[in-house]
Amino acid sequence: MLRSCCSALGLLLGLLSAHPASAVRAIVQLKQCGYKSLLEAKVTNVRGGVKVKVCGEEVVLQKEQTQTDAWRFLNWWDPAQKGEKLSDEDLKTLDDYLGDYEYSRPIGQIGHGMLPPNFEGFHIFEGTTSAMVQGIFKFEVSLGNALNRLPTTSTAQLYRGGWTPSEQLKEMQAALGSGSAVSFPWFQSTTTDDSHAYKFMGRKSEPETCAYDCIGKGEAFPTYLTFETCHGKNVTEWNAAEMEWLLLPGLRFKLVSITKVINDPWQEATPKDMAEWLRQSHTMPTKDWGRNGKMTFGPWPDIADAVLAHSIDGPAFIKWWEDRSFPEPYVKGKWDESEYLYSDKHQEFQSAANTRFKLPRISTRMGEGPNTVEYYYRINLQDAEPC
Ligand SMILES: *[C@@H]1O[C@H](CO)[C@@H](O)[C@H](O)[C@H]1NC(C)=O
């Protein structure tokens, strides 16, 4: 993306540095481009994607490539519309957007500077890619209008579970260090139900660009964000099941903390820890984890001996178990033969192993199961702008 600003703005900021932060921001906003300008954006098809020209800026959107900075110049917060009655179009937009991925997914992808691989709900704008992108802009403007018209509330705790691209995580870590603010240039779905937010942190919710191994590739990480904000818009009326609130793009937040939380304790387990776990029996939390009415599995002293004899720590054990590459003489021939793979013995071990994860069980690609991500980040944010 090319940016054509900023020397005059830099000078202005320099001159204003003695003034309070809010005065600086008011000036910066004048320089920014209001979201309704998207209706006048020039969108042209280019090789592999589209080029968007708006407010003197140029953004090239391509498949399979995110740019978390693409829309940083757009300003979405417009308190002048607050309290206005929602139009029929506003209501239809909220209905379409909420509780369904058909519209929200392509909008999320565009927000992250990526051309949607599949336009889903926006295929109604039959024809060229550029026409569909224009259809998305029109929808986004309508969503911006609807949210700006909704009333503001007092400070609320809003939760968002999901996957954060590494570039954005780095930006938040840097902001925590420097005390500067961050913003997210896309619409964010959040909920007041803290337990609901965990459902989007599993491997099934990984971004498509790195699906199946986003952590391993270092491209995106599971995150649990808590926003303490008075700028959220309560849309629970349209999506009660998820107790949803939306955040307009571009709101500014201060980082309060970022904590890495280990979800799979075996990632940090020593051989001694592993042996200790294997020498204990493990009781299943609910009936459906049991097998044939049996609820307690283990211990496995033969594997515990092998783990100690070969100094196998948690990560090595995980690999060892997946490959069934057991060394002689402890367990060879007992656990590694394919006939054991679906045996009660093997399945019981697997169920017991699944109890180790800290995050709640979720819907996975193979039905309900454990959330097996190795770790996640807990990130707390607060408004950087006064209410
Ligand atoms: C959010 O909206 C729902 C549904 O309209 C309402 O019941 C709830 O009280 C609202 N919450 C707040 C904090 O305003």
UniProtKB/TrEMBL annotation:
Keyword field: Signal
Gene3D superfamilies reported in the protein's UniProt record: Toxin ADP-ribosyltransferase, Chain A, domain 1 (3.90.176.10)
Signal peptide limits: 1-23
SUPFAM superfamilies, sorted: ADP-ribosylation (SSF56399)
Keyword Signal: yes
Superkingdom field: Eukaryota
Protein name: ClpC protein
Originating species: Symbiodinium pilosum
Gene that encodes it: clpC
